[in-house]
Amino acid sequence: MFITFEGGEGTGKTTIIEKLTRQLQNENFQVVSTREPGGSSIAEQIRKVLLNPENKEITSRTEALLYAASRAQHLDEVVIPALNDNKIVLCDRYIDSSMAYQGYARELGEEFINKINVYALNYMPDLTIYIDLDTKIGQARINNNRKHKIDRLDLEDCSFHDKVRNGYLQIAKKDEKRIFIIDGNQTIDSIYSIIYNKVKTLI
């Protein structure tokens, strides 16, 4: 079972995934919790390049290609082996992030993103949970979270993050069977409860 989590900055994805992982493991499910970009040694090194605030010169195409490269490594090292072992994979971001951030917000287009991620298209999630939240609220949460380390994408202005959100909503409209939208204005506990019930129904 391959389940991915998507959303803009400050939606609480990471917290929810950690909680869901613990609960499913307590219920004796074999769970692999991972993230993108990253999730494996090489992919994490690519993540550092991508999110380093000092790397302002990275072009949109280079950015998209690095995400695709990290994803390919992550699939081969983490996701595919776990799925072959009949484990549940919970992944913080996947190809929908590339489509929303680079395809829509960077305006590279769907065709370009699909072409460079053709390998990932062979391993689409069984379920994608998208937490929808007003970008200003999300950014405020990030700025108020002392534990959060500001990365290169956090430094983008509100108009960029608005494009990301609109991109996600467009993606969700095109794939309603796979993508489950949740209102991110609710409390974390409420959001978690909805997600837990959705995941357990799927399992």
TrEMBL record:
The keyword Nucleotide-binding applies. It holds the Pfam family Thymidylate_kin. One of its GO terms (cellular component) is cytosol. It catalyses: dTMP + ATP = dTDP + ADP. InterPro entries: P-loop_NTPase, Thymidylate_kin-like_dom, Thymidylate_kin_CS, Thymidylate_kinase. Keywords: ATP-binding, Kinase, Nucleotide biosynthesis, Nucleotide-binding, Transferase. GO terms for biological process: dTDP biosynthetic process; dTTP biosynthetic process; dUDP biosynthetic process. Its EC number is 2.7.4.9. The keyword ATP-binding applies. It is an enzyme of class 2 (transferase). GO terms for molecular function: ATP binding; dTMP kinase activity. Residues 5-191 form the Thymidylate kinase-like domain. ATP binds at G7, G8, E9, G10, T11, G12, K13, T14. Belongs to the thymidylate kinase family. Phosphorylation of dTMP to form dTDP in both de novo and salvage pathways of dTTP synthesis. This is Thymidylate kinase. It comes from Alteracholeplasma palmae (strain ATCC 49389 / J233). The gene is tmk.
